[in-house]
Amino acid sequence: MTGRVDWFARVTRARNDDAAGGGFELDAVKARAAKAGMPYQRFIRQALEAAVQPRKRA
User: Fold this and answer.
1) Closest Cα to residue 42, out of 33, 31, 55?
2) Residue 56's pLDDT is what?
3) Residue 14 CA from chain centroid, whole number
4) Relative to the CA of 6, which of 12, 16, 17, 31 has its CA 20 to 30 Å away?
5) Are 29 and 40 in contact (CB under 8 A)?
6) What does the alpha-carbon distance between residue 29 and residue 31 come to, in Å, rounded to a whole number?
7) CB contact at 8 A, 23 and 17
8) Is the distance from CB of 31 to CB of 45 less than 8 angstroms?
9) % of the chain residues with pLDDT over 90
10) Contacts from 21-26 at CB under 8 Å and sequence distance 24+?
11) Are the C-beta atoms of residues 31 and 25 closer than 8 Å to each other?
12) In whole angstroms, what is the distance from residue 58 CA to residue 6 CA?
């Protein structure tokens, strides 16, 4: 259950930061996308697609 609590804390903090003019999470995503050599929108889409794919069983 700790993972869900941590996720909720990050999302809540991100919403609060965005409301206060923050947005450092998006900057981090943009930096990782640039490092991977792709637009950040594509980087986000690929991350979401990978997250919803069924996991392969060994």
Assistant:
1) 33
2) 77
3) 11
4) 31
5) yes
6) 5
7) yes
8) no
9) 22
10) none
11) no
12) 28
Residue 45 CB neighbours (<10 A):
12
**Residue given tokens 């990782």 in the structure block:** 32
Q: Are 33 and 19 in contact (CB under 8 A)?
A: no
Residue 44 and residue 50 in contact, taking contact as beta carbons nearer than 8 Å = no
Number of residues that this document lists for the chain: 58
What band does 1 get if pLDDT is binned at 50, 70 and 90?
Answer: very low
For the whole model, what pTM was predicted?
A: 0.54
Closest CA to 52 of 21, 16, 44: 44
**Four-residue CA torsion sign, 28, 30, 35, 41:** positive
Place of tokens 């923050």: 22
